[in-house]
Amino acid sequence: MKILVCIKQVPDMESKFKVNSEGNWYDSGDLAWRMNEYDEYAVEQAVQLKEQEGDTDVTVLCIGPARVKETMKKALAMGCDRGVHVDDEDSAGRDPLEIAAVIAEYARGKSFDLIFTGMQSQDRASGQVGVLVAEMLDFACVTTVVDFSFENGELQVKRELEGGVKARVKASLPALVTCQLGLNTPRYPTLPNIMKAKKKELLSTPVADLLKVEGRQETASMYFPEKKGGGLVLEGDVADLADQLIKILKDKTGVLA
Amino acid sequence: MKTLLVAEYRDGKLLGSTNELIAFAEKTGGESAMFLVGTESAMPAFAGKLYLAEAAEHGEYNPSVHRDLLLQVVEREQPDVVVFSHSSYGWDLAPRLAYAMGAAQISEVIDIVDSMPVVPVCNAKLRRNVKVNTDKAVYTLQAGAFSPDQEPSGTPEIEKIRTDIDGKIIFEGYEAAESGGVDLGKSDIIVSAGRGIGKPENVEMIAALAKALKGEYGASRPVVDAEWVEHNRQVGTTGQTVSPKLYVACGISGAIQHLAGMKKSDFVVAINTDKDAPIGEVADVLVVADLKQFVPALTEKVNSL
Question: A47-93: per-residue pLDDT in tens?
């Protein structure tokens, strides 16, 4: 079986963000980078399937500047077999169609049976790339998956809907699955596996070789939302804060009255 | 601007988010038509043309079939923008339609400013205005971003449509949400735990504060995914939507999905070490403190009142 996992490197969402000098994206300086949380579930599911099926090759693909290779090494340490780094200094500005087209162009003709992606990225959060890749490759596609099994050559998955309801869906290969949080428990790479990952293949390809479409949208401006104001901010000694809050609750709500 | 609104139907019912699509069309002005894979006995209050495909024949979830049906309507109506809810149905179907139309898709639109869609970035910490470079576009709307001023009214003019194409997946049915346990919707006071509680043992202190305030405790998604708290206490789009008199968010950063589940609360207190956390946007009071010290201190004082 041949599996492709597509991951993205994103800033830690707790970071202090700044808008860049062009005013059209966040500044990439002074940020801690990590694997997009949704993609950790995608990598884990791919590796679990490899462990279940045996004789399976898992390729992890990531688009971005050289620094994304650090995130790819984590995926390799989690159990992916080889890495394809699409070298792109301008990946942050690319729209979902361009990103999907690069992935589809790479995957075309390589007879992947299954592609895993996160359901969205934590920064851009368009939720489009996985579905677009599937459309471009004419794969079956199920999004927002929270339960996955593969038996007798068939996928049996559950999609998460609103209000905790799930939809049971079956699909045949080739297929693409977009992974929702909670699908599995992503493993922590062990030290021996981190060492082993260093010897795994990690090749870089220039994005120009794979990008053959034009984007359909761009960011006109990026900015911080206006603070609504009105909310009271309390800081200081914990005991004082508790007294202040109790007084506010008594005055402003029916609670504790 | 001419819009085509894609209404949603599930398990025999039209979904309430349909009204938000109508509110969007009213805000942007111009003509609008509607598309629904559903049934004639569950019609929206919409005074306009409605293209209806029978769910019994085409499936409630069958993306490539629904895409084909939508393409027929797009061909007929030539809308400028096709509008979905940013929901499990919308974010699944919209990219397929956008790709087939050769249109840009803008996900999770919260507003329109200078004719440009506005969307959140980085967990709503930032926003961006999007310039669309195609003639037609597909939008998905964030839940709750567009609300009607008054209940929509009217009766649609129905035109039935159908297709013979086969889908690529098989939808086998729904699985109900885990039930039993707690109905947070009935509680006047909810104290919720977020990722900021740090470890499962700290759920105890959140539960103790909830008890002291005579309420229930809830949790945000990461805490439920980590299995520190059971799913039936989850607040947010994939859990319960609540509107208590008092909501206390402990160590919850305020992801959009969580805010959607609690922002109608009468009074919101947030306890967070990060002053800039998005939860501050909806909080009446933001206590900047380490919850591991503050919550026990508050509980003790409330208990001794």
Answer: 999 999 999 999 999 999 999 999 999 999 999 999 999 999 999 99
Which of A160, A238, A254 has its CB closest to that of B245?
A: A254
Q: How far apart are CA A54 and CA A48, in angstroms?
A: 10
CA distance A198 to B89: 41
Number of CB pairs, chain A paired with chain B, less than 8 A apart = 244
Name the residue facing B126 among A167, A171, A222 (closest C-beta).
A222
Spatial CB neighbours of B16, under 8 Å, sequence gap ≥ 6: none
What's the confidence (pLDDT) of residue A228? 64
Containing structural domain, residue B41: 3-160
Say whether A253 and B267 touch across the interface (CB within 8 A).
yes
pTM score of the predicted model? 0.90
Of A16, A136, A245, the CB nearest to B269: A245
Predicted interface score ipTM higher than 0.90: yes
- Residue B177, domain member (yes or no): no
For residue B304, report the phi and psi dihedrals to the nearest 5 degrees: -95, 5
Q: Are residues B298 and B193 in the same domain?
A: yes
The whole-angstrom separation of Cα A237 and Cα B298 is: 12
Residues of chain B with Cβ-Cβ distance to A20 below 8 Å are: none
Sequence-ordered strand ranges (E) for chain A: 2-7, 9-11, 33-35, 57-64, 82-87, 114-118, 140-151, 154-160, 166-172, 175-179, 202-206, 217-223, 232-235
Is there a contact between A181 and B168 if contact means CB atoms under 8 Å apart? no
Lay out the sheet containing B116-121: strands in order across.
A217-223, B126-132, B116-121, B111-113
Length of chain A: 257
Task: Identify any residues that bridge with B267 across adjacent strands, giving them in sequence order.
Answer: B246
Query: In chain A, which residues have their Cβ closer than 8 Å to the Cβ of B285?
Result: 231-234, 245, 248
Q: Which two tokens stand for residue B164?
A: 């013979």
Record: contact A123-B121, CB cut-off 8 A:
yes
A-chain residues near B191 (CB < 8 A): none
The architecture (CATH level 2) of A2-209 comes to 3-Layer(aba) Sandwich (3.40)
